[in-house]
Each structure stands twice: as C-alpha cells, then as structure tokens.
From TrEMBL, chain A:
It comes from the Bacteria. This is Isoquinoline 1-oxidoreductase alpha subunit. SUPFAM superfamilies: 2Fe-2S ferredoxin-like, CO dehydrogenase ISP C-domain like. Keywords: Oxidoreductase. Residues 7-53 form the 2Fe-2S ferredoxin-type domain. It is an enzyme of class 1 (oxidoreductase).
TrEMBL record, chain B:
This is Isoquinoline 1-oxidoreductase beta subunit. Its EC number is 1.3.99.16. Keywords: Oxidoreductase. InterPro entries: Ald_Oxase/Xan_DH_a/b, Ald_Oxase/Xan_DH_a/b_sf, AldOxase/xan_DH_MoCoBD1, AldOxase/xan_DH_MoCoBD2, AldOxase/xan_DH_Mopterin-bd_sf, N-heterocyclic_Hydroxylase, OxRdtase_Mopterin-bd_su_IorB, TAT_signal. SMART domains: Ald_Xan_dh_C (SM01008). GO terms for molecular function: isoquinoline 1-oxidoreductase activity. Residues 237-316 form the Aldehyde oxidase/xanthine dehydrogenase a/b hammerhead domain. Pfam families: MoCoBD_1, MoCoBD_2. It comes from the Bacteria. It comes from Nocardioides perillae.
Amino acid sequence: MPRQTFVLNGKTVTVDVADDVRLLWVLRDLLGVTGPKYGCGINVCKACTSHINGKAFNPCAVPVGALKPGDKITTIEGLPEQVRDSERGPNGLHPMQEAWLDRDVAQCGYCQPGQIMAAVALVKKVRREGRSLTEADLDGIRNICRCGTYTRIREAIKQGARDM
Amino acid sequence: MTEQLTPGVPASLARDLAAHDVGRRRFIGYVLGGATLVAAADMALAGTPAHAAVPSAPQVPEIYDLNDFLTDSNRATANLITVTINEDGTASFDLHRAEVGQGVTTSTAMLIAEELDLPLSKVRIGLADARPELLYNQLTGGSNTTISTFTPIRVAAAVAKGALLDAAAIVLGDTVALLQSKEGVITGPSGSITYGELATLAASDRVQQREVQLKAPSEFRVIGTPRNRIDALAAVTGRKDYTTDLQVPGALPTMICRAPTLNGTPRRLLNPGEVKAMPGVTHVAVVSTGIAVRARTFGQAIDAVRAVRAEWNDGPVAGQSDEDIVAELRAAEVPMPKLPDLPLLAKTVSADFTFYFRSNSAMDTNSAIADVREDRAEIWSGMKSPIYTQQRIAELLGMTQDQVTCHVVQAGGSFGRRLFSDGALEAAEVSQAMGVPVKLMWHRADDARVGRAHPMCTSRINATYLAGQVLSFQQVHTSVETDYRHGLGEYFTSVAADLPAGLGNLGFAESIFTMTQEIPYNFGVVAQNLVEVDDRFNTGSMRNIYSPDVRAASELVVDQLAKAMGKDPLRFRLEFAKEQRLRDVLNAVAKAGTWGRPMAPGTAQGIAVHKEYKGVSACLVEIDCRPATVNREIREAVTGPRVTKVVYAIDAGLVVNPRGLEAQMQGGINDGIALALTSSLHLRDGHFVEASWDNYFYTRQWNTPRDVEVIIMPSESGQVGGAGEAGVAATFAAVACAFTRATGRQPTYFPINHQDPFPFEVKSYVPPVPASPTNGLNFTY
C-alpha cells in the first residue's frame, strides 16, 4: 500500500492508502478530520472547500497521490492557526470565523466550513489582484447553501475582509 | 378616587384581567426522584389553541389550523419532559424534536434560560432518542416545535427554579420570598449560592408535585431578544457533528448502487466477485433498493458502486416523462364547481398553472449509521419521526420495538426530507444483510434522482367580480400524491395513512390541505379543493408543503383581478384584506420597499401575502428581466431574471428569537426565488434527470438578491408562531407577480425555466453515480 505524506493543519501526516483515493476521504474516513463535508463528490457544491498552500481547492476532486510531501493542506480545523495570535478574535478564531459568529450566519451549518474557507481565499485573491471586494466577486461564489444563508454570508465576508 | 392600574380600565376589571393572566400562567409540574435535581412537565400542558374570532365566513385554518391539530395531538400524551440541573451549574434538556437548521435548539435553550434565570451559555440542549411513550409528540414538522413546546418546557424549567429556591432558603437560612435568582446564582440577605452547589441539595428522593407560575411577558429578559445560535461556534470550527461525522466502531462507509429507473429493484448481481475484489471493499449485498457495498472509504465505495453490473426490474414509472404525468393530472382534474346565483353581468378571471417536481435536496444527503446484531439494533440518523422509524425498523428486522434504539442526530438541512427515514431504514437492512455495522450515505446523484420530492401539481382558479366587489374565488389543486405515511410520527396514524388504494393518505392530504390553505381576502364565496392521484413517486412534505404553489397561483389571480378592476395591486390587497394584521405587513413592506416607485422597462415590483403558522407575512420584490441580466453567462449555471431586492415583513406573534426568525425568513426567500425561477426536477424516460447541484438549480449567489430586508412586526399577541417555513410562500408569489408585471407575460408553469434546454450534460444512469474528478488542483484560487 503506498504511503502518502503531506502537511495537514501544520503537522506532517502519513497515511497508507492507494494513490487514487480522493483526499476528501483520506481526511474524513482515515484521519477523522470531518470539517470538510461531502455534498456531491464532483467539485460542484464546494462543501469540502479547504486550502492547499494557501489557496482554495476541493479535496473531493484531488487524488491523494497528487500531493507532494511538502504540500500544506489546511481544513477549517486549522484555519485559526493561519493568522497570528494577535489577529485572532474574541473566540480565538480567524477573523472570517469571528465575522461568521458575529453575523450568526449558520443555519444547519453543514456547508459553512466550506463557505468560510472559500471566503478567506476569495479575499486573499482579490488582494493579490490589488483591488477590493465587489458585489460581483460575491455573486461568483459557487458554494451552495441550501438553507439559503446567502444574505448573511455576504455580510460576513465583507466584515471578515475588513478585519483580515 | 378610583384606583386605575391600566389607563382607561377600571381597577376591578384590571384586577380581574391580571388574575386571569396569572391563572393562565399557573401550572403543575414535578420534581422527580434522583441524585440531582430533575424537574419535569407534562406535555399535556401545551397551551389552549387560539380560536380566532372572525366575523365573516371563515375558512377552516382561521378556526383550526394544522398547528392546532399537531398541538392537540400532543395534548393527548401524558408523558414527561425533563430539565436537569447539573453540578457544574448547567441545565440540560433533551429536546424531543429534530434540529435540522431551523434553530429549535437555540430557541429551546432560550425558554429554559428565561424561566431558570440562567445564562444561555449554561443551557445544554441534546436531542432525545426515539421515545415511543411520547406517541404523537416526537414529530418535527409543520413549523410546530415552538408552538407546541413553548409552555411545557417553561414549566419544567420553572419547577426546577422553584426547587432551587426552596433548597437555597434552607441552606442560606432565609425565606424564599427574600431570595433572588440571577445568572445561575441565588442571593438572599444571608449570602448567595450557585445552582451547581444546589443541584444535589435540591434533588428529591421521591416524585413531588409542584405548582409554578410562569413569567409574564413583561418580565422576559431572554425571550424576544436577538440571540445567536447555540451551535454556531461548533458550526464555524467544523466541530458540529452530523451523522457521517460520527465514529461508531466498525461502521465503515457504505453506499448503494441503484436501478437505472426510478424505484427499480435489483434482480441479480452479475459480478459479485469482481466488486468484492475492488480496493478497500469489505462486503457486497443485494438489498431491496439495490446493491450495497461497504468499503474502507466512501471514495472506494463510489468506485465499487460504479463497477457493479446487475440486472434490474424496471421501476413503476419506467418509460414515462413529465408530459405523461401532466396528462395524467389533467385527466384527474375535476370540473370547477358551478356557482348557481352568479349575477349575469359578473365577469370572470381564470388561470391555470403547472408546477413541476422539485427536490427538497438537503446538503447533508440521506445518511445513517446502523449496528444491527442478533438481538438488538442501534441506529444514528437525522430523524424527524424517530418513533415511526423505530417501529418500521423493528418490523423490517423482525425485532420488537424495544430492541431498536434510534439516536436522533442533528442534520444538515431537511426541508421536509427527514420526515421519512429512508436512509435509516436502508442502513438497518444493509447492516443486517452484511452482519456488520455500516455508515450508509447516499450519493448526491441518489439524493436528487431518488430522494423525496415535492409532487408535480396543477392549480386552477376561477374568480368573478362585479361593481367593485369580488364575488367568488375558487381554486382546485390537482397533485401527484404527497406522501404522509409517516403519520404523526408513530405507527397508529401512519398505518391509518397507509390504508389500501391511498384512501388513508388522501384523507391526511385533504386534512392537511384544508387545515393550511386560506385566501386571506374578502372575496365572497371562497372554495379551495385538493385532488391527489398517483402514488408511484417518492414525495413528501417539502418546506411549506402546498402553500408556495397555492399562494403563487392565487396571488397571480389577485393581480389579475386588481388589473381588471382598475386598481393598484397594493391598494387592491389593502382594500380586500380580511384582517388588520395583513394590512399592517402590507403597509410595512410597501413603505420600506417604496412600492410604486418608477421602474425601468423590463424591471418591476411585485407584492404578495401569506397567512399560516399563526402568522401573517407580506413580501415585496423587485425583479430585473432585461436581456443583459437574463442572458448573463456563468459557467454551468442558470442565470435568467434576477430578483434584485426583497423586503419581507412577518407578524409571527410572540417571537422567541428575532435573530433566528430573521434567518429563517432570509432562507425562505431564497427557496421562494428558486421555486419561481430556477429549480425543478425533470422526469425523462422513467427517471429524474438531475444528479448534481449544477443540474438542480437551487438559488445560488448569482441568483440571490443583493438587497434583502426582513421586518419583524411588533405584536401584542401571547401566541407563538412558526418560523421555519413561513418565508417561502409569499416570496414565491411576489416573484411570480413581479415577473408577470416586468414581462407583461403571466407564466403558465413554474419554475419559469423548466422547459428551457439543459445547460448541462446529463449524467449516466448506468453506473448511477458519477466518478469523482481528478483535476481539482487545476482550479485553485
């Protein structure tokens, strides 16, 4: 059985599993990291959105064998550690998570880890492009929320962006 | 000099009223025997139903609605719900309802915090396992949770506080009258003591009956204040556990390979050896709904499902498509009733709409963990009718009901889906067949194609008017059957609902239709009727059941009547509204949304109302149907007309958590938009086409309005209302009205895009689930 090694939420992990198993299942079924959710398995619903080397991606569509040993995977569980202590909010969380709490965004909550990870990546991408977040950027988010929390998601992203 | 407590009310009457109010707040509860303080209330305490007094020819829901029915059904049970005070100073309560996102754990915690004078953060809410002794009282539906539990839960908490005060009086050496409780601490002249310290001291070795008096609304410090969800921190950190997140020893990932036609059944597995030899696969079994595979990971289970070669029996709708079902409904339509006394000069407005199948499609697909042994079974799943599920599973496994334990798990959405425990029943069968524990999960493609759906239906309306008056309004709704075989959540009523030839279910359907539907205008002779046919589909109560379709059809005709009678849609509704509450919500949205402001060609406002769940609501929307908007391109997406603004006002009576109510309205708004514009299932050649979120178009960020305002109306009512479904119907209706005004064309079917070409390639039926892509790293951002 091939040994797969990568960095998960700041720690190097090694798992014995075939190359073609998608990373989502390595995280959820083998490593017990369940923040990234299954909503479709075909990179459409975006409920599993996590970060690879600081950029958003969907582990349901990446075979674990495609990872390099130094690749840094961040799931919602590791998001707070992506910012310095001083940048964390009253709950010790990433400013985007704090904005999510402040706006009381979640309803059933199932898609929200993916929404937050997508939001953080979107804000960083817009900054890399040297511009500020627009309504059109928010319109382009593909993450589905079947509870229809879109209004508060938009409010929280704007607020989180201000605090990031 | 006359003493007056309330201006303008004589003192004697004010005292009578006050005494009456206290009488209505005085209840009996119990302290149960135990090592720590356990306070209990009888669910039979659910409040008296509100019988509205309405002057003219009321429809059934005005006098006795679905919520009264559910609440009265609960009243029949004589069983106890309990609040426990723990030594760490927290209170805990196992709610006999399901939390699926609607916020009932938070509102329940608020009720307990209120009566106990405890911080909200110190109230722990779990979900009760199936409790058969609760009979009808463990069903989550009809937005009834708070309506039916508001009083009993508060009584249990008040009993606990009374026992804590008595114990504190003994410990502190003070009289109860001198004690004050605040934030979990009781303070008197001699000192103070915490609830945690009193938890065992206040316990009783026998059952004690206690009389309690609930707080008056004027004393509320928690109820009615905006609070964040108690599970929000868990949700945003990934720590909130749903069924598939639970780790049950030995319960490995399990999926089902399903037939290529809807509800087809397996005849023979052709390659068991090949599937069994797939990487990670541990078990393969033929079960009633397909071929089950169990593997080390869900990814390997998906691969194994795709490798299955099998022979199948066709399902009951093999070869049929949307057009066949529409024709069947048309054939089942009964003639509109003739009105005998209609004046000769009366004019008629008519309309006829088709509403296609829609999926309730929760994010968290049907899933369940089952550990079935020789002599017992343990099930974990998001269940809104756990008692019924427990009974069905016992029957399926050949066990007695008490051999089956059903744990209710918080679920990622329901929208009616979890009234049926399709995943739990399947998991139990698979676990028994394989002889090992399983963690069963439906693929998204299964969920869309085979999952419960809102039935296709037609709605026809005839309305007549003469000389500024509407003389009659008749609506006949003809629908594929809505499945209510869960009954009231337990076996007896579900058996009644399952009588041969659909007779029992039709009785349920007609009762629920009659108890929920209402035309809230003075329209003379009003009649609404339901005809249901065809039980071959997997249907159920999708969020707000009949109301979104019925209300969209009616409000479109209300706009037609207004136009025919030369009146503005808002003024017309204000003039004909039956009650002031309705005029108040209409005026609220009209003011906040600047009704009647000049709009560019191709854009328009729409306005509509709805009345249900003890509340009334109005919705004002603005829609943009200009080509530049309609034709905007987004990859594999439905764009089309865009709702640009929504103002929604609701009078939900006494509101426990306004922040939660606002959230539910915001969600319902997106449901209403989806029903009007984008989301439906297409039946083609015996199966539903949709197999992905990029096939089934629930509202996305590019469809959602950028401008949404929810207005919660002040209310003097002491009656709590329902929240979870109350935002859908008025929104759907308002969007339909706005679209008609913007385009000058009234749709004949919904959603309006249903007959457009698919903007996607249809996924395969054999194999029934798509492979996961491997190119995810090409799309990082």
